[in-house]
Amino acid sequence: MPMEIVDAHHHLWDTERLDYELFRSLPVLLRPYTNADFELLAARHGVSGSVLVEAASAGADGWRELLWLLEQAKGSRIVKRIVAWAPLERPDVSGYLERLTAAADGLVVGVRRSFEFEPPEFAASAGMITGAKTAARHGYSVDLVLFERSLAAALQLVEACPEVRFVLDHLGKPRIREGVLHPWWEQIAQLAQAPNVMMKISGLITEADRAHWTKEQLKPYIDHAIACFGWDRVLFGSDWPVSTLAGGYDPWVEAAVWATAGAGESDRRKFFSENAKRVYRF
After folding, report:
1. Which is deepest, 3, 63, 111, 149, by most CB within 10 Å?
2. Three-class SS of residue 190?
3. pTM for this one?
4. DSSP code for 118
5. Domain of 261, in residue numbers
6. Residue 208: which pLDDT band, with cuts at 50, 70 and 90?
């Protein structure tokens, strides 16, 4: 019987309707990727549901993107929930989240504000701590997307907000391309001590050598994340279409299946589908 997959992290965008500044230098991404494109891939891999994550962090208008994402989700058989962009550090974030809730028709269950292009300490700023707490009061989980250099500040954010459910995307973007394990190794172990943090095993192939990565290179990072967080707090995500920069959907699914082949059936079900349904409230 084929294994059910819930893709807990993918994107859609329309570069003909919105300007994603970051994609101007990445021709592979500088075209529309719509729900119709995603459903073709999803059907091939037995994906029964998915979480659609904002890409406005790449430079587009977050509110306009949200309205487009809602259109895509409402016309989808597979997209079940959305993680939307939100200006969490701003004093007026509560008003923004009220507008979001009114527009979202229950589809948005989480929010995200990228730390990738901010100073390393940004995640621990007073504005971000207040914003994360505000998101939780509005009923939203908070996805964290950052490079390894921001993990120390992310730890401070998490410790300051025990009432917030956080989901760390892409294993905190370790330096796989350089073969560097530390201090990421120790910081992930520290982060796992906080019971309110979940971990997405996603986005790894674009942090490796995009043209020459191997599943053997990825496995130590995957194994460590699972050892630290346990099978109840890890989620599978494709990071498509960003993953097209490094081979795309098919080789990443193959790598994730291979890397977890030694686990029991119950644990693999948690990782590939059940945890995402619980965390994102399907």
Report:
1. 111
2. helix
3. 0.98
4. S
5. 5-279
6. very high
